[in-house]
From TrEMBL:
Keyword Transmembrane found: no
Family membership: Belongs to the UDP-glycosyltransferase family.
Protein name per its UniProtKB record: Uncharacterized protein
GO molecular-function terms, A-Z: UDP-glucosyltransferase activity
Superkingdom of origin: Eukaryota
Keywords: Glycosyltransferase, Transferase
Pfam families for the chain: UDPGT
Chain segments annotated as coiled-coil in the UniProt record: none
Length: 175
């Protein structure tokens, strides 16, 4: 891991790891993996071996993702030396579950975090990182769901767009 990081530019690597207690569903793993790939940024992603082995779906797409991102992305299956990773000059951001130790280690090494809490104290730790310390940004999934809900900003914008480009009688027929 350290040798791979040594080859990367300062602050360029997105490090993603979700701790030992958090169970990430295979659909979530897929989204995280493809999000890292689509970002175009170098990334180091730690995936628990149990999550890979437990899912035929992950076993299907993960090797292909690793091949497509070879050189730019590194997937570590199992355990990784998090403190050594967070203290490395190449790491510029940490996508984290907001476990207490992970948050302390990232703050101690000046690495900003993208927060994705799952359980217990992780939600309070997220508030500490985002609202108090100002070193984190929340994962925007909840905001997107709120925006798309009835009455949300995206819902309202789409409604206005539809109203603008459809007949005023609303029956869907040309006038």
């Amino acid at each position: 891991v350290t040798e791979w990081l040594d080859a990367m530019c300062t602050g360029s690597v997105v490090y993603a790891s979700f701790g030992s207690l958090v169970r990430v569903l295979h659909e979530q793993l897929y989204e995280v993996g493809h999000g890292l790939e689509d970002s175009g940024r170098p990334f180091l992603w730690v995936v628990k071996e149990s999550e890979v082995a437990a899912s035929p779906e992950v076993l299907e797409w993960l090797p292909a993702l690793e091949a497509r991102t070879a050189g730019r992305g590194l997937v570590v299956r199992g355990w990784a030396p998090q403190l050594a990773i967070l203290s490395h000059r190449a790491v510029g951001a940490f996508v984290t579950h907001c476990g207490w130790n992970s948050l302390l280690e990232s703050v101690a090494h000046g690495v900003p975090v993208v927060t994705w809490p799952h359980l217990a104290d992780q939600f309070l730790n997220e508030r500490l990182a985002v609202d108090v310390l100002g070193v984190g940004v929340p994962e925007y999934g909840e905001r997107a769901r709120t925006a798309m809900a009835i009455g949300g900003s995206s819902y309202q914008n789409l409604t206005r767009l539809i109203q603008r480009f459809t007949p005023s009688d609303g029956n869907g027929k040309e006038q």
